[in-house]
Amino acid sequence: MGRPVGRRLLASSLVLALLSPAAHAGDGPLIWGVPLDFILFAATLLGVAIFHHHVLKVALGGLALISVYKVMVTGFKAGDGLPGLAAHMAHEWVLLANLLCLLVGFALLARHFEDSGGPEVLPRVV
User: What is the largest CA-CA distance in the chain?
Assistant: First the structure.
């Protein structure tokens, strides 16, 4: 994706996000009608995109920040504080384990593809 297309896509996404009605995600604070936890998540994704050489550190920092925010401010559907976090994790652990395995599998597959020399050969074939 070229720079002009990427900029237009980013600008239109921001306009749509600001104009769309806010989704209900608890009783936390809103900024321009958007829950603060969504903004923290977007900041984490932006940090991963910008600091792509430090993905794990940025992602774990974002996870810690959002988790502390949820425990201290908004709570979870299952309850508030650490008991709410524990109940939430008891409910979601299978999904998180599957996502972890998918991410590790894709990382291994990408490393194998790079080591095989495929990226150098494919442009000549295609």
Answer: 57
What is the three-class DSSP state of 75?
coil
Domains identified in the chain, total number:
1
Let me know if residue 76 belongs to a domain.
Answer: yes
Residue reference for tokens 């299952």: 78
The pTM score is 0.60
Range of the domain at 34: 16-125
In a domain, 38, yes or no: yes
Note the helical H segments in the chain. 3-19, 36-50, 55-69, 81-115, 118-125
Note the pLDDT tens digit of each residue in 7-65. Answer: 666 665 555 455 444 434 456 778 888 888 899 999 999 999 999 889 889 999 999 99
Give dist(CA 54, CA 48) in Å, integer.
Answer: 7
First-to-last CA distance in the chain? 19
Domain presence at residue 8: no
Which among 32, 40, 30 has a CA at the least distance from the CA of 16? 32
Structural domain includes residue 97:
yes
